[in-house]
Design a protein that fits this description.
Radius of gyration of chain B: 17 Å
Strand order of the largest sheet of chain B: 1-2-4-3
Helix content of chain A: 40-55%
Shape of chain A: flat
Distance between the termini of chain B: 51 Å
CATH topology of chain B: Deoxyribonuclease I, Chain A
Oligomer: heterodimer
Structural class of chain A: alpha+beta
Helix content of chain B: 10-25%
Order of helices and strands of chain B: EHEHEEEEEHE
Low-confidence stretches of chain A: none
CATH class of chain B: Alpha Beta
Strand order of the largest sheet of chain A: 1-4
Radius of gyration of chain A: 24 Å
Low-confidence stretches of chain B: none
Number of domains of chain B: 1
CATH superfamily of chain B: Endonuclease/exonuclease/phosphatase
Mean pLDDT of chain A: 84
Largest sheet of chain B: 4 strands, mixed
């Protein structure tokens, strides 16, 4: 018996499978060697405490290993969060969006109430406004989707030269996009 | 407010953390996965401090434990969200970091082990010995994940083969 399997069974562990992915590591060469070197195991007590546990593989922008998320069925509170992005300020529509709401919110006699009401209105309109703002996130998302698809395809068959070159281009593009996102 | 959100633990063998490109990529994966715990392997870095962690972690991932690389090889880092989890470091060595997390809301306990198994055959035996002798009696709800550098069966490779990386030791 494979010693690794023996260890796993001695420790009474259960393997959590990676959804839709057979391999996790790729040797960077034309006809790549693909191996599953990454694993997740859980104890028996885990299985009963968190029955809704699975592993979601993510795309591989860099490194020869994929990253993956262990998703654990447990309840934690979700804050309803508003994130202000610094690059908004430079955007032409920003001031207009804020000032419109700022001046159009209802007027209260109480100054504190006035201020908080205006901030709330500005926040809500910024949320809406920002949805149509940046295509950057969308582009990054698309790059990841293509990389994930190519990695998945490679699990099944060798990629053609064209597909491999395409992947290199997409990776490079994806790093550039991430860099501009960071600068923002 | 409780929307039945899952707890998410992101694992990645990053093959060296010391560049802006890696920080960007990790930061983006944290965002994509919306993880509450981050487990990195092969950081190839000897020490971490709060300032360095901020290069790729958002503010809510604010507590960490690391195992230093030996020269330029190995190295592990586990970061968690301290406002969600009360975390305790249970064990740190060159193969693994084990932390105990107690959810501050439902008081459920988890043990998460971030694993980096060596690729060199001699070290693999030492890794196996460590794993074999690991005292897990107090590990309530235990998950271990990461790069074990081992395979379980021949199907874990796309072609039969070679002992180039010695993934198995039958």
């Amino acid at each position: 018996m494979n010693l690794f399997n023996e260890l796993i069974s001695n420790l009474d562990l259960v393997e959590i499978h990676f959804s839709g992915r057979s391999f996790t590591w790729r040797h960077m060469q034309a006809d790549p060697l693909l191996v599953k070197l990454d694993w997740v195991f859980t104890s028996n007590s885990w299985t009963s405490a968190f029955p809704a546990t699975f592993v979601q593989p993510l795309s591989r922008p860099i490194s020869d290993h994929i990253s993956f998320v262990l998703q654990i069925g447990i309840n934690v509170p979700r804050p309803s969060m508003f994130r202000f992005e610094n690059f908004w300020i430079q955007h032409p529509g920003f001031l207009e969006t804020v000032s419109l709401q700022w001046h159009n919110s209802p007027f209260f006699g109480n100054a504190a109430k006035n201020l908080s009401s205006r901030l709330k209105h500005a926040r809500d309109s910024l949320k809406l406004w920002s949805k149509n703002l940046s295509s950057l996130s969308k582009l990054i998302y698309n790059c990841k989707w293509v990389l994930l698809l190519l990695d998945g395809l490679e699990d099944q068959q060798n990629l053609s030269r064209m597909e491999r070159n395409f992947r290199i281009l997409v990776k490079r593009h994806s790093s550039e996009l991430l860099e501009s996102k960071r600068i923002y | 407010m409780n929307n039945n959100r899952q707890t998410k633990v992101l694992f990645w063998n990053i093959r060296g953390i010391n560049s802006q490109e890696k920080w960007d990529a990790i930061g983006d994966k944290i965002k994509e996965s919306a993880c509450h715990v981050l487990c990195l392997q092969e950081t190839k870095r000897e020490a971490f401090d709060a300032f360095y962690i901020k290069k790729f972690c958002p503010r809510n991932l604010d507590k960490f434990a690391f195992s230093p690389s030996i020269g330029a090889s190995g190295g592990l880092l586990t970061v968690w969200n301290n406002s969600l989890f009360d975390g305790t470091i249970i064990q740190v060595n060159s193969y693994a970091i084990t932390i105990k997390l107690i959810c501050r809301f439902d008081k459920k306990c988890m043990h998460i082990t971030n694993v980096y198994g060596p690729s060199n055959l001699d070290h693999k035996m030492a890794f196996a010995t460590w794993l074999m002798n690991l005292d897990t009696d107090n590990f309530e709800n235990w998950a271990l994940g990461g790069d074990f550098n081992l395979i379980r069966n021949p199907d874990n490779r796309n072609r039969p083969g070679g002992s180039r990386r010695n993934e198995s030791f039958q």
